[in-house]
Structure formats: C-alpha cells, structure tokens
Amino acid sequence: MIKVQVPGTSANVGPGFDAFGLALTIYNTFSFEEKTDGKLTIRGVEKKYQGTTNLVYRSMLKVFKKADHHPNGLYIHSDVGVPISRGLGSSATCIVGGLFGANALIGSPLTTEELFDIAVEMEGHPDNVAPAIFGGLVVSLNDQGKNFYIKSEVHPCFEFYALVPDFPLSTSDARQILPKKINFSDATHNLSRATMTYLALANGNEDILKASMKDRLHQPYRKKLIAHYDVITRKARDMGCLNTCISGAGPTILAVNSVNNHRFQPEMAAYLMAKMPGWQLIALFPDNAGVQILRG
Ligand code: HSE
Q1: Which parts of the sequence belong to the GHMP kinase N-terminal domain (predicted)?
Q2: What is the percent of the chain where pLDDT is above 70?
C-alpha cells in the first residue's frame, strides 16, 4: 500500500495568471494498492467518480504506459480535504496524487521532473500542479515543450484565509469567459504587479502586497461569476487584511493577512455567519513540502 498526500493550491494570486501559485495546508490523501483480481476499485468519492474516467486513475495510467507496466487490478482510496470545484487545486491534487502514487507503486522509474512534465500536460497550465508537487510559492513556464520552475518559501509574516462559497465554478467556464485579446496597457499593468506580488510574498513586503495584487487579465471578467465578490472583498479590506484575490479560477476568494492582524478571523467569521451562512472560512498557511509519499 502506498499513501500520497498532496496539498491544495491557490493559483494566480491576483496578477500572476497561469504563472504562479502557492501550496497551502489543506490536503487530499490518496491510498493505492496493486491487486491481482482484475478489477478497478475506487473508494472515498461519490459513485460518479468511481469509474475509469476518474482523474487519479487516468493519471496513474500515464505512468504505467510510460513505464510499460500492466497492473492486473488496482485499489484507489481518496481522503478528500480540498473542496471540489472551488479554485483550490482539487484536480491538480488528483493528477499529482495519481502520477506520484503510480510511480511509487512500481519502484519509482520516473523522475520528479518527468512527472512534473506529465502533470503540466494533463492540467494544461502549470500554476496548480507546480506548487502541489514542489510546495511553497512556485512560478513556472513551458518553453518549447520543456518546463522550468523557481520555488520560493512564502515569508512567515503572511497567513491566508480561503473564503469558500457554497456554489461550485468549473475552471472551463471560468476560462471561457476570458477575452481572446487584451490591451497592451493591461498586459504591462500585470507584468510589474505579478513580479512584485511574487517577490513581496517571498520577501515579506506587506505594504507592497497591498498595492501589487490588482489584476486586469482575468479577475474583472470572473468576478461577475462570484456572487457577493465586491462586498466580501471590501469587507475583508475593512477588517485589515492586506489584500484579496480570486483563488485560481474561483469561486473561492483568498485573503492574504498579516499574522499580526488578529481582527480578521473573528470578524470575517461573524460576518459570513450573519450574511452568507453557506460560506466557509478556512485558515491556511503555506505548505513548503509539496507532495509526500507517506508510506511505502
Ligand atoms: N491559472 C488557472 C486559471 C488556474 O486561472 O484558469 C485554474 O486552474
């Protein structure tokens, strides 16, 4: 039996669209066993995810194919801690869990870099799978088929809160709504802000982060898909948090708070309970370890 723990992630962090994301202390844990009963058994998820279309299973097949391995039966169990279709990298955890689990089951023939390449190809963009694999704050790019990444640890002056709505949003719907072309001025607006957001998170520049997280590439379009977005982000700022953004493709809102601002959690919890009782407030810290093989 192999157990694999994968952190949830928050991609984009405002202006870093499809470029960077950070791993957080919220996890999906997958257990794997190779069987000889000729069956695929998937547990821990709804019936509709228990067949051959299961993303963890499809990811495992990629590794088996590359390693020319042919299992005669598999058992997969998912212990789900990352909310599904909420912008916290749930599908990336399935891809990374399946790839690393399959690889560990058969004696690790593929390198982490090879698994990273497959994960990026499957997800279509790297900003969730990269931090899920490497942990921390990770910026990555693909150049002529080759993936590159740089990892930094988030400065300990920051803590994060996921404000998770009671409705899902599919990544493909949230990508569909984006324009096919953007203005030159919007591109330049994001370049400096994305760079400074990454560096401010790594270096602990709280004042810069208050200004740098504005985005013009995706949030202005996507916020229309998130009920109460404007009021909640305004309230969060009133409660002293440094900044907010859409987590990944949404609908979760990520609040970046200073560890010294003790008002935010109790005030936001009370506000949500009174006004939007279906929403969850989850306190999170950066996960710097990334994917972990827990038992082999
Ligand atoms: N960068 C991606 C997006 C993350 O914003 O669409 C979602 O998986």
Answers
A1: 54-136
A2: 99
**Smallest CA separation from ligand 1 atom 4, residue:** 248
Residue nearest to atom 5 of ligand 1 (CA): 249
> Strands 74-80 and 40-43, how do they pair?
parallel
What is the whole-number distance in angstroms between the Cα of residue 17 and the centre of ligand 1? 7
User: Are residues 130 and 215 both part of a single domain?
Assistant: no
DSSP string across 255-292: EEEETT--SHHHHHHHHHHHH-TT-EEEEE-B-SS-SE
Q: Is the pTM of this model over 0.85?
A: yes
Q: Measured from the CB, is residue 128 less than 6 Å from ligand 1?
A: yes
**Pair (141, 184) in one structural domain:** no
Question: Ligand 1 centre from 103 Cα, in Å?
Answer: 26
What the block records as the tokens of 277 is 């009782």
Q: Domain range holding 50?
A: 2-153+287-295
Distance (Å, whole) CA 16 – CA 195: 8
Same domain, 140 and 260: no
Give the Å distance between the CA of 267 and the centre of ligand 1. Answer: 29
Query: What beta strand segments (E) does 91-144 contain?
Result: 137-143
Q: Which atom of ligand 1 is nearest to the CA of 123?
A: 8
Annotated binding site for ATP: 83-93
Indicate if ligand 1 lies below 6 Å from the C-beta of 206. Answer: no
Q: Over the stretch 67-88, which tens digit does the pLDDT of each residue have?
A: 999 999 999 999 999 999 999 9
